[in-house]
Amino acid sequence: MSRSDTRVVVAMSGGVDSSVAAALMVRAGYDVVGMMMRLWTDDALGGAEHNRCCTPEQMSDARRIADKLGIPFYVLDSKDIFRSTVVQYFIDQHRDGYTPNPCLECNRHIRFDWLLNNALALDADYLATGHYARISRNSTGGWDLRRGLDAAKDQSYVLSVMEQSQLARAKFPVGEYHKHEVRELAEELGLNVAGKKDSQDLCFLGDSDYRDFLRLHAPDVMAPGPIVNAKGDLLGQHQGLANYTIGQRKGLGISANEPLYVLAMNPYKNALVVGARDQLGRDRLIAENANWVSGAPPARNFRADVKIRYRANAQPAAIEVIDQHRFSVIFDEPQRDITPGQAAVIYQGDVCLGGGVIAKFAEAEFSSGRVALAAAKSRRLSSQADCVWE
User: Is residue 387 annotated as part of the catalytic site, yes or no?
Assistant: First the structure.
């Protein structure tokens, strides 16, 4: 099949990355269709004009780009499925004591499921997005998900939920470029979004932060509760667990002889566990809801590098597959901010093997003192490990 007979739907947002992705597909000779999703409208937080994902300005920019490229452009109403899968997940995870990354759920349920199926319904062969990642064939004939060429912009972390059938239908045109090259391409192609700023926050939050959003949509998540140390001694009152994250120091609202940091959140007692800096850090985690990009892990036990946050560097570790849905990670060096709800994503070289959601402590681990024991263990860490935490 020639490229002119190959239809590519491009997920457009009105930003520079997706606009250049569309332009590259046109330049490569594909039959290109632009699609934009109307993901969220929250009148209580200012309406669509204040969202970051689908403002009237962004829709207008995307339509202008499509017109300039000479491609059809459609806007799909995905508000209901976005609310039921991504937004509800965000709320439920906070309610359960996690600090979630909803971007992974959006890629899992919206972009590479709902939108991909809509693209296929238009007889498309591929769905292209503006993600900084790469796809290549491996020696077994399967598809590898690889880091984007621009390490600073690499988005393979949030794509770690993808499966083989989705990779076979996906294209990431800007993954072979650095960001400054993408902006230069936009200028060269006469796209009026070349200087647009990158989006930094969750797309559905509008001009508010996530705490304002939760106060409005899930006020129970912001219920106050006790602040305790690892032994369970009462130190004060927090203003809702969702206000805090592991490793946080500022904004605790309690006085002590030394700076205190968030060690854990106990959703079973609605308690915030705090302690000294040298109590921070663990060398292991368990991840659940695992996804293996190839369809299966490379082995029962293997070594790889693991990222525990989107902006973190991957760290060397030993991985053990517990069962189909869970794996454990033991890092070579303790990691300061292992945060339940964030993704633990596994790499070998530049290939993303998959990942899972970092599990929280079980209720028995709080009552048995295991959290305190973990803190005590961390106090014995070497000064070299402390340097790694900086």
Answer: no
- Cα–Cα distance between 52 and 272 in angstroms, integer? 31
pLDDT at residue number 362: 62
Q: Which of 53, 54, 203, 352 is catalytic?
A: 203
pLDDT digit string, tens, across residues 76-126: 999 999 999 999 999 999 988 899 999 999 999 999 999 999 999 999 999
Q: Which domains does the chain have, with CATH numbers?
A: 3-131+172-205 (3.40.50.620), 222-276 (2.30.30.280), 282-389 (2.40.30.10)
> What's the pTM?
0.88
Is 352 assigned a catalytic role?
no
* Residue among 53, 106, 352, 387 flagged as catalytic: 106
CB 50 within 8 A of CB 207: yes
User: Half-sphere exposure of residue 52, counting CA atoms within 13 Å on the CB side?
Assistant: 14
Dump pLDDT digits (tens) for 122-159. 999 999 999 999 999 999 999 999 999 999 999 999 99
